């Protein structure tokens, strides 16, 4: 027994405890050079029982997590484990998963595409390429579409036209779809607000939407 430090002894006793159903205690204590009476004192202590319970809980958590192929986080594991008879809070569950190095796979959130290059329509030429920056308003308008997530789920789409010289929005339209009417209505508002003249250059993503 003199070969082991107190911390080492606890590990040895824990090993013997885990093997009790396989090997005789007296044999393991003799082979490992530890006192059998001291081992029984260790085994009958309350913290050993707590360790057993904790180990059982951890094993049940790991089993449930593995069963669902790492796709269940704490929110879904809590009711799952409750159905199995284990009442455990999300904080404790999160701690066990963290200590075991387990992390649920996060599903990729759906994000609508505002640009689609896979279409049969021709791509408009880039009229701004090689051109000087505009020197006054209503020479160049640039347009774009962005998506806005809704609180209850789903999306709405915002089409905006902006004067490239003044950097001010000339018109916009918000709809629950990204059809042709979205950008057209926004453009109509821009035209109405600015009364642009002939020669205006309109630049967007050149037919990608």
UniProtKB/TrEMBL annotation:
<dbReference type="InterPro" id="IPR001584">
    <property type="entry name" value="Integrase_cat-core"/>
</dbReference>
<dbReference type="GO" id="GO:0015074">
    <property type="term" value="P:DNA integration"/>
</dbReference>
<dbReference type="InterPro" id="IPR048020">
    <property type="entry name" value="Transpos_IS3"/>
</dbReference>
<dbReference type="InterPro" id="IPR036397">
    <property type="entry name" value="RNaseH_sf"/>
</dbReference>
<dbReference type="InterPro" id="IPR050900">
    <property type="entry name" value="Transposase_IS3/IS150/IS904"/>
</dbReference>
<keyword id="KW-0472">Membrane</keyword>
<dbReference type="InterPro" id="IPR025948">
    <property type="entry name" value="HTH-like_dom"/>
</dbReference>
<dbReference type="InterPro" id="IPR012337">
    <property type="entry name" value="RNaseH-like_sf"/>
</dbReference>
<dbReference type="Pfam" id="PF00665">
    <property type="entry name" value="rve"/>
</dbReference>
<dbReference type="Pfam" id="PF13276">
    <property type="entry name" value="HTH_21"/>
</dbReference>
<feature type="transmembrane region" description="Helical">
    <location>
        <begin position="12"/>
        <end position="35"/>
    </location>
</feature>
<feature type="domain" description="Integrase catalytic">
    <location>
        <begin position="130"/>
        <end position="209"/>
    </location>
</feature>
<dbReference type="GO" id="GO:0003676">
    <property type="term" value="F:nucleic acid binding"/>
</dbReference>
<keyword id="KW-1133">Transmembrane helix</keyword>
<protein>
    <submittedName>
        <fullName>IS3 family transposase</fullName>
    </submittedName>
</protein>
<keyword id="KW-0812">Transmembrane</keyword>
